[in-house]
Amino acid sequence: MLDLETLWQFIRDKFEQDFSPITFKTWIDTAKPLHFTGNIFVVEVASDLHKDYWEQSIIPQVTSLLSDTLGKKIKVLVKTVDEEDPLAPQEKPHSTEVSLDLMGNPKKSTPLNDKYTFKSFIVGKGNQLAHAAALAVAEEPGLMYNPLFFYGGVGLGKTHLMHAIGHQMLENNPNARVKYVTSESFANDFINSIKSKHQEEFRQEYRNVDLLLVDDIQFFSDKVGTQEEFFHTFNALYDDKKQIVLSSDRLPNEIPKLQQRLVSRFKWGLSVDITPPDLETRIAILRTKAEAEHIIVPDDTLSYIAGQIDSNIRELEGALMRVQAYAKLTQQPITTSLAAEALQSLNGAPQAKELSIAMIQDKVAKFYHVSVADLKGKKRVKNIVLPRQIAMYLSRELTDASLPKIGHEFGGKDHTTVIHAHEKIADALQSDETLKKDLATLKADLHS
Ligand SMILES: Nc1ncnc2c1ncn2[C@@H]1O[C@H](COP(=O)(O)OP(=O)(O)OP(=O)(O)O)[C@@H](O)[C@H]1O
């Protein structure tokens, strides 16, 4: 009888031939065969998202591969690591045939950054799901997750993934029409089209695409006309089963003044967050970057740099470039002590990012006669809630820390709490003169 391992190896070999390395690694390498009993083959996959993808795309292929090879009808089931073994099965239906509808007009040139590909994207815990979802829509646009919505802090790879989807889709189908814009460019294009009376061209441009990527849609808040137009663009593309990918620093329902009908549409597909990378991933990102730029950096130095910056990959890469520049300037090889010097002297003030949240908490606590522990705690009484929100507001305004990082520094609160606090204080500042004065004093104190 065919043993499980041989069977799995057979499947792996087949997919290794057919799939790109990255696809293979994402969907097959992360899966594990559990049983092959009678004519039922059960596979365990890493997450719900992997399961969706298997059901949609891989199961049909495995089923026909096994059925053809073994000469009998085989049923393939997947379960996630968290689910019970389905061998007392309720069989799930899955759609079988997948067809891409991407043919059509010639490709329009689109400004995708060549460096932002799946190949150059390092997958770690914080971005694993986002990466898998991105790959899924690149391979089966318009079918599984529409729209796909990325959210998360600054500099964590949302734009990179969006471009990667575009590149991958073009690689799969060079005729695909891919359009990447920031929400601001969308708004500008729209306004210009009204001014120049070229609205029809604007519509053609945005509605005749196979993939529309709109970055940073939090900047849609307040732009009523643009939201209206985007609503129609969205509907036209969606009805046509064209893929839409959006990104924002927060969830749709947390974007102030975003029309409810857009919020609800944005939730139709899949929203995935990207959280800051762990140390291991940061080191891997730096190593790849150093290799790409032909910079020779010892391992311990990479770890040192990765240890200095923990919440923003753009800054992490910036730190590496600063170290390289410093080494060139002083004509020394890159070592850990040189990196330490470079990051201190070229960074101006001593590394104060983490410190400054602590400093803000300290000053705010003193100013309002509460304790730092109260700021980090959960008490909901007014004389603590206000200083807590002020401290969060200042942390967001005065440091580069990401929302999750600020939440973490305030006793492990969710990043949405930070957004809420920031909005509350920003709103109150419009009318509350005492608050304005207090904040001015606090800021002056913090900067002295
Ligand atoms: N996982 C990763 N692997 C390799 N490079 C990455 C990764 N994540 C981010 N980067 C790099 O970090 C930099 C910042 O990423 P990106 O611009 O995509 O962030 P973002 O989330 O869109 O930020 P913003 O909110 O400012 O738009 C880019 O140079 C990108 O290539």
UniProtKB/TrEMBL annotation:
Domain Chromosomal replication initiator DnaA C-terminal: residue ranges: 356-425
Compartment(s) where it occurs, according to its Swiss-Prot or TrEMBL record: Cytoplasm
All copies of domain AAA+ ATPase, residue ranges: 144-275
Cellular component annotations (GO), alphabetically ordered: cytoplasm; plasma membrane
Chain positions covered by the region annotation Disordered: 85-104
Residue ranges of the region described as Domain III, AAA+ region: 111-327
Positions of region (Domain I, interacts with DnaA modulators): 1-85
Main localization, broad class: cytoplasm
Gene3D superfamilies, alphabetized: 1.10.1750.10, 1.10.8.60, 3.30.300.180, P-loop containing nucleotide triphosphate hydrolases
Protein keywords: ATP-binding, Cytoplasm, DNA replication, DNA-binding, Lipid-binding, Nucleotide-binding
Molecular function in Gene Ontology: ATP binding; DNA replication origin binding; lipid binding
InterPro entries tied to this protein: AAA+_ATPase, Chromosome_initiator_DnaA, Chromosome_initiator_DnaA-like, Chromosome_initiator_DnaA_CS, DnaA_C, DnaA_dom, DnaA_N_sf, P-loop_NTPase
GO annotation terms (biological process): DNA replication initiation; regulation of DNA replication
Pfam family, one: Bac_DnaA_C
Superkingdom of origin: Bacteria
Start and end residues of each stretch annotated as Domain IV, binds dsDNA: 328-448
SUPFAM superfamilies according to UniProt: P-loop containing nucleoside triphosphate hydrolases (SSF52540), TrpR-like (SSF48295)
Binding residues annotated for ATP, in chain numbering: G155, G157, K158, T159
Record's function text: Plays an essential role in the initiation and regulation of chromosomal replication. ATP-DnaA binds to the origin of replication (oriC) to initiate formation of the DNA replication initiation complex once per cell cycle. Binds the DnaA box (a 9 base pair repeat at the origin) and separates the double-stranded (ds)DNA. Forms a right-handed helical filament on oriC DNA; dsDNA binds to the exterior of the filament while single-stranded (ss)DNA is stabiized in the filament's interior.
Family: Belongs to the DnaA family.
Subunit structure: Oligomerizes as a right-handed, spiral filament on DNA at oriC.
Domain note: Domain I is involved in oligomerization and binding regulators, domain II is flexibile and of varying length in different bacteria, domain III forms the AAA+ region, while domain IV binds dsDNA.
Record HAMAP family: DnaA_bact
Protein name per UniProt: Chromosomal replication initiator protein DnaA
Organism this protein belongs to: Ligilactobacillus apodemi DSM 16634 = JCM 16172
